[in-house]
Amino acid sequence: MSQKPVLTLQTNDFPQWYQEVIAKAEMAENGPARGTMIIKPWGYAIWESIQNELDQRIKDTGHSNVYFPLLIPNSFLQKEAKHVEGFSPEVAVVTHGGGNKLGEPLVVRPTSETVIGDAMSRWIQSHRDLPLLLNQWANVVRWEMRPRLFLRTSEFLWQEGHTAHATKEEAVEETLRMHNVYDDLMRKVLAIPTVLGQKTERERFPGADATFTLEGMMRDTKALQMGTSHYLGTNFSEAFQIDFATPENERRLCHTTSWGVSTRVIGGLIMTHGDDYGLRLPPAVAPVQAVVLAIRPETVPESAALTEELKAAGIRAQLDSDTHTPFGRRAVQWELKGVPVRFELGPRDLKQGVVTFVRRDQKHEGQEKQTIPLAGAGQAVVEILPQIHTALYEQALARREANTHNVKEIGEIEGRGFFRAPWSAIGSAGETKLAEKAYSVRCLVHPEGQVPVELTPENDLIAYIAKAY
Amino acid sequence: MSQKPVLTLQTNDFPQWYQEVIAKAEMAENGPARGTMIIKPWGYAIWESIQNELDQRIKDTGHSNVYFPLLIPNSFLQKEAKHVEGFSPEVAVVTHGGGNKLGEPLVVRPTSETVIGDAMSRWIQSHRDLPLLLNQWANVVRWEMRPRLFLRTSEFLWQEGHTAHATKEEAVEETLRMHNVYDDLMRKVLAIPTVLGQKTERERFPGADATFTLEGMMRDTKALQMGTSHYLGTNFSEAFQIDFATPENERRLCHTTSWGVSTRVIGGLIMTHGDDYGLRLPPAVAPVQAVVLAIRPETVPESAALTEELKAAGIRAQLDSDTHTPFGRRAVQWELKGVPVRFELGPRDLKQGVVTFVRRDQKHEGQEKQTIPLAGAGQAVVEILPQIHTALYEQALARREANTHNVKEIGEIEGRGFFRAPWSAIGSAGETKLAEKAYSVRCLVHPEGQVPVELTPENDLIAYIAKAY
């Protein structure tokens, strides 16, 4: 079946493709207030899967979920100098409540280091109260001048972890632990390979001593920051007096961390795996992992039976028995939505005891349609889903490798892709020059790929440079 | 062991008891901005259990989760007359964002009928788009003059369902379906008996044609509204032009509903089951269902083994091996936290192959401590947890029945409890008089207890009257 793409081709206009696929796959749309987003059922179900997977990992590493207030006294944000500088231009301010002008304006949280730091200063008294390992799932608001669905919205959803420790070593260890938890999520759940590294001073979180990041390469070869983990040193402890008594009864400042992953990763998911025919969802986050299309009314009963068989095998399966709608249009819609596996059951298949089986990840590799025996088709999917996950990951990794270039100096940085350059050849001055060409240093890594814990000048680090979202 | 209560006695000062138990069980505390709340790990874990149980029921009844923006243009709230009247005095208003004064102020959502109604008007075109069954988990802000943790906080967490239907019949059916889902949650998860009925016109949700409510009786015999479901008629459809084409291609207005349960139910949970020794948690929402206290260091290994046995049996179990802290203080703390089952394992128990077993729900009925064989103790808990649930429910029901009085007229309404009076003897005028005495009509029911779908004068209804939170 030759098929006309229903989307603008990625190579023609990637941002336009992105907008269209979000609309046509019914993921999200703009809210009425500028920069806000309505997440529709298909998009929200993906977020729920990400939440479940990440929440389990956060709990498994010893953190407790909590909930802190949305509205924060303006004075709280003023307490840490770099933090106020970083966030003041972005905040939404509540000036009126209950019909009256407020004595002190309240800020809609752009992040919660301040309000949680204030509580930590009360909750932590002794070394026995440490480490304190908290996390919350929440919405935050940061005013966006150039909003874009999922990637930059004035309000977004995320988890933010906040922890306090007795020593720098423990806090850095925690920061790197969560950095690795995020990497696990990216690889095993989202099938997204990322470059793990540390941000430069210029790109650091406001108030952090070190920021670790995971940078994914999108299909247009631009970078997207998928998650960050911050070692905050004693900056917030000083600002909010978060201290503890040692066993020897000396007062010491805590070392704190924070780390977050947001609905932005859904943008990364779309732009890492999506193709000219729509989304391609990794099975772990696909709201429907396998759809069964009854081609004709007379094949609905067997299609329903196969759907039940799939469900019994633990697969999120859905029957499409809408035989009044032309078959081609239905197939296109499920492709747009990125469902990993599609069954098509027609009368001829049924007579032969087979079913047509389509892998979304193989579309237009010429091998996506197969005919397999109807008996046992449900079990076959159980084995194929992990293969689809791996295939998506490998495709993304191969694309990144093909588009990563080793360079020696700024002059060579031109055009598409990631550029690996010696950090010693770039430096802060180089970053400023790169910014003029719309490039930025995404992160610094050791030459062999490890994450550098310290940014000492002796370390001969590699800078990853790219245009970014 | 004779034990001095660590809390103010409920009979001495119930509001004081409430504050103390929330603080000492580490459930929540006040946030820095007036009326806001910090939900601590123990409180939030309870909320997570409630969310999981309710979310499953919402999905099982065909609803999809979505997420709509926190910030709503002020003009949206103005579109439905009763809605604006009900919510205007309560809203928090964002006037500045991104460093600038906004052209139109944004309201922090007090509820989302308006912004969701606006989307429904775009999403619904044809009868084929109906019913539209949405739900979201979100935070909302309503300015509170007399805040109280969980019961009335300026920000609270909830789910809000929003649905649109072709006919009044279907919309009313949906409203009652969710009313019953809430009842199922109250009975089977929270072990709270409630009176199900319809609100009077005076007590209705702003913009609703009918509001159905579940009213629980707290231990001080005051009423608490545990959840509400609203049939909104065509009020929001008219305001937001939510209409559809019938099969005959006529335009018709949709009939919409909304329904919500919030973190307020945690307040209800505390005040329904808690006693002078602390919380008493129904097993379904207890973050820890069984705790194992090692009395002495030498019983830690067997205590740990029992904890693992409990976990293997699917029970949320925790080991308390903190033998440096006096045993009595630890027992008191677990009682405060309301853990349903407590094991105490001392050297003498161990020698005899037994373990002491304490049911929190039987505290001070003189039968709470038993000695049972250590072997198979884990499995015993599996059977006992449902009994604890039932016991809590039955106690609450018996207390409500003992404190419910049938009366004929307003003059008889005095003192504690629920009063059942013929609605024909009260009426709107009676409601005003009752309000002067701080009583309100909590809901109207049929004499046999069914929920009245219509409030026609012919219906000989019973009014439930009480003081309320």
Overall pLDDT confidence of chain A: 95
User: Residue ranges of chain A: pLDDT <50 for 5 or more in a row?
Assistant: none
Query: In oligomeric terms, what are we looking at?
Result: homodimer
Q: Using the alpha-carbon principal axes, give the shape of chain A.
A: globular
The number of helical segments of chain A is 13
Q: What's the architecture of the largest domain in chain A, going by CATH?
A: 2-Layer Sandwich
Q: Biggest sheet of chain A, open or closed, and with what strands and sense?
A: 7 strands, mixed
Total domain count of chain A: 3
Radius of gyration of chain A: 25 Å
User: If strands are numbered along the chain, what order do they take across the biggest sheet of chain A?
Assistant: 3-7-8-14-11-10-9
Q: Report how far the terminal alpha carbons of chain A are from each other.
A: 36 Å
The CATH C-level name of the largest domain in chain A is Alpha Beta
Q: Most extensive chain contact?
A: A-B, 53 and 53 residues
Structural class of chain A: alpha+beta
